[in-house]
């Protein structure tokens, strides 16, 4: 049964787009001046491409310049050929006989050879330009993608939790490919304008007024193109969220990570239908614009043709009246024909370029997004060893865009060298507290001190290096087992002894040794040589990252949730080792884990409710005692 959601969701989407048109898309509904203003994005593009490969860029430019002069040369040689043919055909062959006749043909042979030479040269230059463009295009795509990844990585976690940011990232990502087409068009423009100038010099000598006529006749087509380019941009812009949703649906519908659940819940039909519904709506919006564009384009270019044929008729009549030679007629007709094609192409390309330059703004403005969580200039490194620990002073934090405090009025000290467990119900704020400790976010209220100094005053890289967090939703890298542990401290990825020791401590060694490829075994199912692990096996591997990291502050968010009872017991046998001389934070819902900690902090709705040792909290008979009792009952 098809599942349609044209009801509430469809309405919401329509409302969003309408709002988009009134708001964001209105930004995209630009005046000609603003559109031309977008051309300021072109020089930075040139700079980027030049930086990608100066030799290839220069080669493309020089080849185009040479190629630009070929058409006028060919037309001129063509005119000489016709004039020569007319002259030779009109000459009396009688006196000199065959030899003289042959001699008379010699200049013609040279001219023909020159024409052929030019044709071959043009072809060769064309291919060389295409080759240098395509090589440069590939390099440019690689280079920009790497830059995009680097920049995205430097941004705040908050950015990644914001849908508008994803829309922006998506638009920027789409700009990493295909921008060379734009560059090719711009360089093609340069080439064409040189050709046009060279033809114009020739034509101006014969009929300057006609040149003017040609240019004027093409203006309506140009304006039409410019208008529709802006409309296309508006459309693409206002549909970014839906296009992202399409990509997402395609991913959910066919990916190794979702296949299992999609199958057992029979979601395929639902996902495909939802995809189709959205894709059809986008198609329809695009089609309407494409049809309008094609109809207007046809009408407006007819005006251009009118101008051209007016000029052509004029030349034909002037030749018939004896003002031009037959050779002149060939040259002029050829030049006008060529000129018309070139001008039309140039005007269109110009409007495409200015249209494309709008898209470029998406790429450049993405690079302009600045992270907010940054190091102060000349920030000192984190002390080593940490002496006092971390002190939360009335810390409050709201996730961006949320008016609900995830944590508030948090005041406590995480003492250097202690293992502190965080306990609390779902949504109590445990993970948020950890994110603040690792400076993935900065508090909105209060401050966090490290050895008496605000965390924000320390060098960020040094802080991140001093902190190791294994999140509950740790990443299952579809890389080798060895790399999966090495990500804990990627700079040490070649230190196999360190990786093996880490694996041994987290109990991942037995898992890895049983794999066909051992440490070199690719994990996960995404690649053909990959092997999938069980949830607990993955967790052991992820835990290996904590040992690999060997950080001053170690944070484990639900480190044993997926482990069986024996593995959990063994992990905690070694836990003391792991945290020896270190500060540790442990989040867990299992009280067998929690009681390993030196102290326990109980969070409730983002605030500290109780702090103490296991025994103290049990004796206090508060929430901890209640939760502990609830869990203990389950085992009786
Ligand atoms: N990225 C986010 N954006 C907005 N709100 C969030 C985000 N992450 C968490 N929250 C909200 O912040 C509050 C605290 O969440 P947090 O993840 O810290 O809870 P937790 O104690 O770790 O829960 P759990 O035991 O379920 O892991 C919750 O109300 C949650 O809805």
Automatic annotation (TrEMBL):
Region of interest (Disordered), residue spans: 1-26
A GO term from the CC aspect: plasma membrane
Residue ranges of domain ABC transporter in the record: 390-630
Topology of the protein relative to the lipid bilayer: Multi-pass membrane protein
InterPro entries in alphabetical order: AAA+_ATPase (IPR003593), ABC1_TM_dom (IPR011527), ABC1_TM_sf (IPR036640), ABC_transporter-like_ATP-bd (IPR003439), ABC_transporter-like_CS (IPR017871), P-loop_NTPase (IPR027417), Type_1_exporter (IPR039421)
Record-annotated ABC transmembrane type-1 domain positions: 58-355
Domain of life: Bacteria
Protein's cellular compartments: Cell membrane
Molecular function (Gene Ontology), one example: ATP binding
UniProt keyword Nucleotidyltransferase present: no
Keywords: ATP-binding, Cell membrane, Membrane, Nucleotide-binding, Transmembrane, Transmembrane helix, Transport
One matching Pfam family: ABC_tran
TM region positions: 199-223
PANTHER family registered for this protein in UniProt: ATP-BINDING CASSETTE SUB-FAMILY B MEMBER 10, MITOCHONDRIAL, ATP-DEPENDENT PERMEASE MDL1, MITOCHONDRIAL
Protein name: ABC transporter ATP-binding protein
């Amino acid at each position: 049964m098809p599942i349609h959601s044209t009801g509430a969701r469809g309405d919401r989407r329509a409302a969003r787009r309408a709002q988009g048109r009134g708001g964001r898309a209105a930004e995209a509904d630009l005046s000609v001046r603003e559109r031309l203003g977008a051309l300021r994005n072109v020089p930075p593009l040139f700079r980027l491409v030049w930086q990608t490969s100066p030799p290839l860029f220069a080669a493309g430019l020089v080849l185009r310049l040479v190629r630009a002069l070929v058409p006028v040369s060919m037309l001129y040689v063509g005119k000489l050929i016709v004039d020569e043919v007319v002259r030779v055909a009109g000459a009396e062959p009688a006196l000199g006989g065959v030899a003289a006749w042959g001699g008379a043909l010699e200049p013609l042979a040279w001219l023909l050879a020159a024409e052929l030479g030019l044709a071959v040269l043009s072809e060769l230059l064309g291919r060389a330009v295409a080759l240098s463009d395509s090589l440069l295009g590939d390099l440019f795509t690689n280079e920009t993608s790497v830059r995009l990844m680097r920049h995205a990585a430097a941004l705040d976690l908050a950015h990644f939790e914001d849908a508008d940011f994803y829309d922006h990232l998506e638009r920027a990502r789409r700009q990493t490919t295909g921008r060379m087409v734009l560059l090719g068009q711009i360089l093609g423009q340069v080439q064409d304008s040189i050709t046009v100038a060279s033809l114009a010099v020739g034509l101006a000598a014969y009929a300057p007024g006609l040149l003017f006529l040609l240019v004027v006749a093409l203006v309506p087509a140009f304006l039409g193109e410019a208008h529709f380019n802006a409309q296309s941009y508006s459309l693409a812009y206002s549909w970014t969220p839906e296009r992202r949703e399409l990509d997402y649906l395609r991913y959910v519908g066919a990916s190794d990570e979702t296949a299992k659940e999609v199958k057992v819940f029979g979601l395929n039909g639902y996902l495909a239908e939802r995809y189709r519904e959205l894709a059809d709506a986008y198609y329809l919006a695009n089609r309407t614009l494409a049809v309008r564009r094609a109809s207007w384009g046809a009408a407006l270019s007819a005006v251009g043709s009118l101008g051209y044929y007016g000029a052509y008729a004029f030349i034909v009549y002037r030749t018939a009246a004896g003002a031009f030679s037959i050779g002149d007629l060939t040259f002029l007709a050829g030049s006008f024909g060529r000129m018309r094609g070139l001008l039309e192409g140039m005007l269109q390309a110009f409007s495409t370029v200015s249209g494309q330059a709008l898209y470029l703004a998406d790429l450049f403005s993405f690079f302009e997004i600045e992270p907010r969580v940054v190091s102060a200039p000349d920030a000192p490194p984190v002390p080593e060893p940490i002496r006092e620990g971390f002190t939360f002073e009335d810390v409050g934090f709201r996730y961006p865009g949320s008016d609900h405090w995830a944590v508030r009025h948090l005041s406590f000290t995480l003492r250097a060298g202690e293992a502190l467990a965080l306990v609390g119900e779902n949504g109590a704020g445990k993970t948020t507290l950890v994110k603040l400790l690792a400076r993935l976010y900065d508090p909105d209220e209060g401050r966090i001190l490290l050895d008496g100094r605000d965390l924000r005053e320390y060098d960020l890289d040094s802080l991140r290096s001093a902190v190791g967090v294994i999140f509950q939703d740790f990443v299952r890298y579809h890389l080798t087992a060895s790399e999966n542990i090495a990500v804990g401290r990627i700079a040490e990825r070649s230190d196999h002894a360190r990786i093996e020791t880490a694996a041994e401590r987290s109990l991942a060694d037995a898992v890895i040794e049983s794999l066909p490829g051992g440490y070199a075994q690719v994990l996960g199912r995404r690649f053909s040589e990959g092997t999938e692990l069980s949830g607990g096996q993955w967790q052991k591997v992820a835990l290996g990252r904590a040992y690999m990291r060997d950080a001053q502050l170690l944070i484990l968010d639900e480190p044993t949730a997926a482990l069986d009872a024996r593995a959990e017991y063994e992990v905690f046998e070694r836990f003391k080792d792991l945290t020896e001389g270190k500060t540790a934070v442990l989040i867990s819902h299992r009280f067998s884990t929690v009681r390993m900690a030196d102290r326990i902090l109980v969070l409730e709705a983002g605030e500290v409710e109780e702090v103490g040792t296991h025994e103290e909290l049990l004796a206090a008979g508060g929430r901890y005692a209640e939760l502990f009792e609830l869990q203990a009952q389950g085992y009786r």
